[in-house]
Amino acid sequence: MAILMATHAEVAHTEEFGIARRVPAVQTHQQASQQILPFVVRIIAFDPSGQSFGTGSYIGTYGEYGVILTNWHVVSDTNGLIHVHFPSGFSSFGAKIKRDKKWDLALVAISRPPQTIPALPIAQTPARQGDPLWIAGFGSGSYRMVGGQCVRYLALPPENPNDGSALLYEIIEVSVSARKGDSGGPILNQRGELAGVLFGSDMVQHTAGSYSGRVNRFLIEAQGEMARLPERPESLFATIEREGPLHSLRESRNTVPQTIEVQQRPDFSGASAPSFGARSSSRRYVSPMP
To answer: How many CB atoms lie within 10 A of CB 165?
Structure first.
């Protein structure tokens, strides 16, 4: 079986895992609507106290499975099945298969969607300061895609300040604010590629997320977990269902808008677009890289 994901150029064995087909450069509003919306999914994760909402990106297939990339904090508290809804109307149960708390990344396995749903390619070249970037997500329920620029790269504080470890400037900052519920959504470059996965906003004008290079390494590390999945998704979901709360896809579909509402069309000139947002992360960063 081959996992069809776009990976970094330095990855070995790309012949085995395959490279997702490229998406044409996004230049017009019509292209943005047609090429970006199908990749973005609404995630509903059930926990003992209720349910939480987030966003994810469809990045490929593995056998009979589809693979969703999102945030660790979107699915970390779930004790049962995750529900994943596509703008096309397709929906599936989901299961956590790989998590990285430090960089706030998670992979969710779903039933393989129809072939008409494409896979979002991952950028092989990191965005540079000043490059136009866009974020997309479902927020409180309505879809929105809004643009800004790459501001800078940040690093997480070292776990042990005295061990001499080098700081990893692998958090990309974008000059646009995300909404609560956009967490896990894609940060996109001009070519329609995933330049990062957003995990937090300052409520004013900036959004931060793990950049594409960190995402690529996370996907490489996930190959082992993917290989250990049961051959059929139904058997995986049945096992989780016995241990978690029962919620039907039909019930949760009622929380997803049937008609996608684009509140802010992307402006591909590179200028920042107005936005409003809510804090979705309390992470602390070290000083920006010079």
So the answer is: 10
SS3 state of residue 24: coil
| Gap between the Cα atoms of 37 and 41, Å rounded | 8
**In a 10 Å sphere around its CB, with 0-12 CB exposed, 13-18 middle and 19+ buried, how is residue 149 labelled?**
middle
Q: How are beta strands 50-62 and 186-188 bridged, if at all?
A: unpaired
In a domain, 50, yes or no: yes
Query: Which residue positions in the chain have pLDDT lower than 70?
Result: 1-34, 164, 203-204, 241-246, 251, 253-290
Residue 216 CA to residue 36 CA, distance in Å, equals: 20
CA–CA distance, 227 with 242 (Å, rounded to integer): 23
- Give 202-223 pLDDT, tens digit per residue: 766 899 999 999 999 999 999 9
Question: In this structure, what CATH number is given to the domain that contains residue 44?
Answer: 2.40.10.10
Q: Does a structural domain hold residue 64?
A: yes
DSSP bridge pairs for 172: 153, 209
Our CA angle for 122, 33, 23, nearest 5°, is: 30
Q: Say if CB 20 and CB 4 are below 8 A apart.
A: yes
Q: Which two tokens stand for residue 35?
A: 């090429």
Pair of tokens at residue 253: 């579909």
Report pLDDT for 97: 93
Q: Considering the domain boundaries, does residue 158 fall inside one?
A: no
Q: Tell me how far apart the 2 most distant CA atoms of the chain are, in Å.
A: 53
Question: What pLDDT does residue 186 have?
Answer: 96
Contacts (Cβ under 8 Å, ≥6 apart) of 286? 154, 155, 156, 157, 167
- The model's pTM is 0.77
The runs of H, that is alpha helices, within the chain are 14-17, 29-36, 72-75, 212-221, 223-227, 233-243, 249-253
**pLDDT (0 to 100) of residue 129:** 95
Three-class SS state of 227: helix
What residue numbers bound the domain in which 115 lies? 14-119+216-253
